[in-house]
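User: quick one, sequence for these tokens?
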């Protein structure tokens, strides 16, 4: 039911505005969304005049290759271990075996292209190939990205000048 509501809202937004603009998305749909221009939306916080914490949806400089006007499904956000009110991201999460177990799970890895693309590029930026990390996660439950980096140098894929490493098709983990 939630998915139908999100889809209907997305279609309404696109139909009435003509394009998906991060700054016009409600906070509850911001994280893991991609604008019409192909840039990722990110949730930021700021303090209001009375000191209360406010969330704002902003357009990032990071480009999501081959994804435009996309809102990741709630099921994906949940199965990959995230929350829509997540603020910021870090490659340090790839060092956490519990995080990589969720990211590499079939429910996340095979069904959630935006999240997987984002972390694929983040891993490449740290010299790790996400499919190798996921394969290792399955075979050595708990082997961290740091261990993979020490054991096998990786230079998969070209790096773009803006937005970090360039996306490549994801092979199965």
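Assistant:
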């Amino acid at each position: 039911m939630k998915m139908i509501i999100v889809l209907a809202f997305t279609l309404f937004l696109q139909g009435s505005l003509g394009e998906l603009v991060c700054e016009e998305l409600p906070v509850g749909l911001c994280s893991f969304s991609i604008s019409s221009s192909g840039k990722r939306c990110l949730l930021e916080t700021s303090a209001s005049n009375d000191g209360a914490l406010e969330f704002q949806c902003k357009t990032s400089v990071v480009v999501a290759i081959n994804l435009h006007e996309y809102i990741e499904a709630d099921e994906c956000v949940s199965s990959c271990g995230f929350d829509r009110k997540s603020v910021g991201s870090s490659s340090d999460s790839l060092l956490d075996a519990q995080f990589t177990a969720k990211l590499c799970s079939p429910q996340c890895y095979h069904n959630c292209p935006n999240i997987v693309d984002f972390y694929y590029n983040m891993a490449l930026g740290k010299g790790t190939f996400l499919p190798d990390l996921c394969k290792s996660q399955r075979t050595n439950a708990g082997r961290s990205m740091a261990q993979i980096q020490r054991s096998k140098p990786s230079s998969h894929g070209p790096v773009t000048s803006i937005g970090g490493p360039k996306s490549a098709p994801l092979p199965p983990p």
